[in-house]
């Protein structure tokens, strides 16, 4: 797989008893990207949902993009392969599309996810993430994973990794917390300038210990104005800035709401920068809502989105192309058409592709990058 679907289903805090059904609903709704991790202790149930939909013939394995993460207690080089194999077994897959280093620091190996000392401080291991990365690179070589990436890396850590001598595989993404209260503008600029995509976690404010983002009066007002839900607004916010986004939900109506065409093919067609200064009542780690600035938004995206009747993956589709769909203000909005293949939500637009390029897909995949893979739009 040479691209990362820009919208995925998060699975943290998705209870084992609920997540199998959530994954099935998500696949039916069009989700193809699933963000998993050993730490979430639900990979087996996620895998059950995936297998069920493959058996039903709704999707094939190749249609899906499954991500897992190496937990911090497995940073020793000798432990990396077994950790990956454990996730694969739980997910009932023979390869992962992407394996991320969950955090840049290692913890003392063992069965406890958070090994603590007497004072409640996490016990670190003396591993270096550059060594851990080498073991992750081996997973690509042996075919257990198609690509590797990182999570929770700041720009210095990422730079150190990118400058590693004899780097065999670049990280394809850096998954970080990101939403309108924590826009990560500088980190995103840095990552994108180095051909590393960014994946936004906690895009709706978080599953636990999060922020009440969706209740923010400014987001509510914008949602009302565009006739979208607050969740759709903050999901679209990321897609518009070429950031992959992985909202979590186990609620069928919300899962569908989060991937509706209303999210995928909707553009903020005017600057929202003026709202930025009003946003952010209260949350302690609130930062400026600079991402809602017109400069970062699509600008002329509506005007320039020229749909071509061709899906990146499924080829030309007769009769399909751009549609004029009324937006909330009644004006026609130019949207890319959808691929008619069952379950495929890819736009038939080479200049507005929802599948982000995976610039780090090197080695065996480097010749499979489509010509349009250099940019999202
Ligand atoms: N790499 C990392 O360190 C890291 C850290 C945190 C998260 N993540 C990943 O990122 C994913 C997303 O982050 P997150 O789960 O923390 O938080 P999130 O996606 O920002 O928020 C999830 C919460 O929003 C609710 N929700 C979902 N859709 C909604 C909608 N349309 N309207 C209203 N509420 C809605 C969910 O409720 P219901 O489920 O009850 O519907 C859940 O309580 C995680 O699941 C995980 O895969 C990665």
Task: Write up this protein.
The chain has 377 residues and is of the alpha/beta class. The protein contains twelve helices and 14 strands. Strands 2-3-4-5-6-7-8-9 form an eight-stranded parallel sheet, with helices on one face. Strand 3, helix 2 and strand 4 form a beta-alpha-beta unit. Helix 1 runs parallel beside helix 9 and helix 2 (43-55) crosses helix 3. Residues 269-377 have low confidence and may be disordered. Bound molecules: NADP nicotinamide-adenine-dinucleotide phosphate (NAP). NADP nicotinamide-adenine-dinucleotide phosphate binds next to helix 9. NADP nicotinamide-adenine-dinucleotide phosphate binds at residues 10-13, 35, 102, 151-152, 175, 201-207, 214, 229, 231, 246-251, 254, 257-258. Residues 306-332 are annotated as: Disordered.
Structure, briefly:
Its EC number is 1.1.1.263. With 377 residues, this protein is of the alpha/beta class.
Please specify the SSE layout and strand pairing.
Layout: E1 3-5, E2 8-10, H1 16-29, E3 33-35, H2 43-55, E4 65-70, H3 77-91, E5 98-101, H4 129-142, E6 148-151, H5 155-162, E7 173-177, H6 185-193, E8 197-201, H7 217-226, H8 230-240, E9 244-245, H9 252-259, H10 261-264, H11 273-276, H12 301-304, E10 310-311, E11 315-316, E12 323-326, E13 332-335, E14 355-357
Parallel strand pairs: 2-3, 3-4, 4-5, 5-6, 6-7, 7-8, 8-9
Antiparallel strand pairs: 1-14, 10-11, 12-13
Helix pairs in contact: 1-2, 1-9, 2-3, 3-4, 7-8
Bound molecules: NADP nicotinamide-adenine-dinucleotide phosphate.
NADP nicotinamide-adenine-dinucleotide phosphate is lined by residues 10-13, 35, 102, 151-152, 175, 201-207, 214, 229, 231, 246-251, 254, 257-258.
Catalytic activity: 1,5-anhydro-D-glucitol + NADP(+) = 1,5-anhydro-D-fructose + NADPH + H(+)
Family: Belongs to the aldo/keto reductase family.
Organism: Panthera leo
């Amino acid at each position: 797989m040479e691209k990362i679907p820009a919208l995925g289903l998060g699975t943290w805090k998705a209870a084992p008893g609920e997540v199998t059904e959530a994954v099935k609903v998500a696949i039916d709704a069009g989700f193809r990207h699933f963000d998993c991790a050993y730490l979430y202790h639900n990979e087996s149930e996620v895998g059950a949902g995936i297998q069920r939909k493959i058996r039903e013939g709704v999707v094939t394995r190749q249609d899906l993009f499954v991500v897992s993460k190496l937990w911090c207690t497995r940073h020793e080089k000798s432990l990396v392969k077994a950790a990956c194999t454990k996730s694969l077994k739980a997910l009932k897959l023979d390869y992962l599309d992407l394996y991320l280093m969950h955090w840049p620091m290692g913890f003392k190996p063992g069965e406890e996810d958070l090994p603590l000392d007497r004072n409640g401080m996490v016990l670190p291991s003396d591993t270096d993430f550059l060594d851990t990365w080498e073991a992750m690179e081996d997973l690509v070589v042996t075919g257990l994973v198609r690509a590797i990436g990182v999570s929770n890396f700041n720009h210095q850590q990422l730079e150190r990794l990118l400058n590693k001598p004899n780097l065999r595989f670049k990280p394809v993404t850096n998954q970080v917390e990101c939403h309108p209260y924590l826009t990560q503008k500088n980190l995103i600029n840095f990552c994108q300038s180095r051909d590393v995509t960014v994946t936004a976690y906690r895009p709706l404010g978080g599953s636990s210990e999060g922020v009440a983002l969706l209740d923010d009066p400014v987001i509510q007002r914008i949602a009302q104005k565009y006739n979208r839900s607050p969740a759709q607004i903050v999901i679209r916010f990321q897609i518009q800035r070429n950031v992959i986004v992985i909202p979590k939900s186990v609620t069928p109506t919300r899962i569908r709401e989060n991937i509706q065409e209303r999210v995928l093919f909707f553009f903020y067609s005017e600057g929202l920068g003026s709202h930025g200064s009003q946003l952010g009542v209260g949350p302690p780690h609130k930062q400026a809502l600079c991402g809602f600035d017109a400069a970062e938004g699509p600008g002329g995206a509506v005007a320039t989105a020229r749909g071509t009747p061709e899906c990146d993956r499924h080829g030309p589709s007769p009769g399909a192309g751009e549609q004029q769909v009324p937006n909330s203000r009644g004006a026609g909005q130019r949207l890319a058409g959808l691929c008619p293949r069952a379950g495929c939500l890819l736009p038939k637009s080479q200049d507005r592709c929802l599948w982000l390029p995976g610039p780090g897909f090197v080695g065996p995949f480097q010749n499979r990058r489509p010509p349009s893979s250099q940019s999202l739009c």
